[in-house]
Design brief:
With 387 residues, this protein is an alpha+beta fold. Among the domains are: 107 residues, no CATH class; 73 residues. The protein is 38% helix and 19% strand. The strands form 4 sheets. It has a 4-stranded antiparallel sheet with strand order 6-7-8-9. The protein has a 4-stranded mixed sheet with strand order 10-11-13-12. The chain has a 3-stranded antiparallel sheet with strand order 1-3-2, with helices on one face. α7 links the parallel β4 and β5. α3 crosses α4 and α6 packs antiparallel against α8. The longest helix is centred in the first third of the chain and has 20 residues. The N terminus is likely disordered.
Length: 387
């Protein structure tokens, strides 16, 4: 997750799939805990996308995570090595996604686990050893602090008037309470700072923490929300990054809190904005412009929504540069700390820059003597700061 630029992150993966000998026996998930998953389709979209065998394994892992057991999780006994290896491949493909769908289990490492094999009398048994990020004795106290923070955000979000304002409140509250800490990437091991706990309680994290925190709160608001990984199959130190998707009404959108919290790190912008909304409810066409590697095999929906995009919803999206209309957009934001516009094309953005800035019309519109601005070429945004 090391940052290569203001808006490019690299996430470290540590995946352990060491084959060890051990005892195991097949068991099904406890009925009441399995029922909790079955009754929450919106909260757990990954779980509900699986076939029955996938749900069974998910349930076993879920039970182990929620009960905080450090014993090996028995996955099953198989008649052949090939069948057992199929189960191993399934776990390798889905383990991270399962843990990311359960962000409240912040004590579980999403990237490190061990697969244990045992062969006996022609049968092949498989179990999984989970890796813990914190001492289990500390979990109750940490969970109390975590639950209180999540509850506070949820309760305030519920007071907002509609889905846009509820999600925007959560988005902004998470960003106001946390900062991107690049020093967390210097270590070789995962830490609790990389989880929702690190983001919401400790206030320092990287992309994984922002993503997991957003999922946690959205689940409590009964809004479908999940995680999207670039380089999904090879989530590596070179190009790894993770962000969110959400379903708002009947449309899916992408959200990237990490890039919005780091896009304006330069000191000259600090008096004006702590973060932007450049990646609030964007669609795939907008996201790929910022050099994401979209992976079609990732288990996430197509995100093509437009209505709840921050700039569209706020009436600050410029589809065609018309001076009078853009003037109204700017004047509507004149009392804000900064003015933000998004353009549908680069040509319209350049036309606006020429007319407003190079021809100095912006001074007449805002009535200010000292104006600066910044353009994000990839995202097609213009941010205007008036002193």
């Amino acid at each position: 997750m090391k940052r290569a630029s203001a808006v490019f992150l690299i996430l470290v993966i540590i995946l352990s799939a060491v084959m060890l000998s051990g005892c195991s026996e097949s068991r099904r998930p406890e009925p009441e805990k399995r029922a909790e998953l079955d009754l929450n389709r919106r909260k757990y979209p990954v779980y509900h996308s699986l076939d029955e065998e996938g749900k069974r394994i998910y349930g076993l892992l879920y039970n182990a995570m929620i009960s905080q057991t450090q014993a090996d999780v028995s996955i099953g006994t198989y008649a052949s090595r090939e069948e057992m290896e199929e189960a191993e491949e399934w776990i390798d493909e889905n383990f991270r996604q399962i843990v990311y769908e359960q962000p409240d289990f912040f004590w579980i490492d999403p990237y490190t686990y061990t697969l244990n094999e045992m062969e006996s009398v022609g049968q092949f048994s498989l179990s999984v050893s989970l890796s813990y990020l914190v001492d289990t004795d500390n979990i109750p106290e940490m969970k109390e602090r975590y639950d209180e923070r999540v509850s506070d955000i949820v309760e305030e979000a519920k007071k907002q008037s509609g889905v846009f304002d509820r999600v925007l409140y959560v988005y902004d509250e998470i960003l106001l309470g946390a900062e991107y800490d690049e020093s967390l990437l210097d270590g070789d091991e995962s830490t609790v700072e990389l989880t929702a706990y690190g983001c919401l309680v400790e206030g320092r994290t990287v992309c994984s923490g922002y993503t997991l925190a957003f999922v946690s709160v959205m689940q409590k608001l009964n809004i479908e929300c999940g995680s999207e990984f670039n380089s999904y199959e090879d989530f590596s130190i070179i190009d790894g990054h993770v962000w969110n998707y959400c379903k708002l009404d009947d449309e899916y959108y992408y959200f990237d809190l990490t890039w919005d919290d780091s896009i304006f790190d330069a000191e000259e912008y600090k008096p004006y904005l702590d973060f932007a909304h450049s990646y609030f409810a964007v669609n795939e066409d907008q996201l790929v412009k910022t050099n994401f590697t979209m992976q079609s095999d990732a288990p996430t929906p197509d995100c093509n929504g437009t209505r709840y995009n921050y700039f569209v919803y706020k009436g600050a999206n410029v589809s065609e540069y018309e001076p009078d209309i853009v003037r109204e957009m700017i004047e509507a934001q004149a009392d804000e700390k900064y003015i933000a516009l998004r353009f549908d094309s680069y040509s319209e953005l350049l036309e606006a820059e020429t007319d407003l800035m190079k021809n100095s019309k912006i001074y007449d519109i805002l009535g200010a003597d000292n104006i600066s601005y910044v353009i994000t070429d990839d995202c097609l945004h213009m941010y205007i700061f008036a002193k």
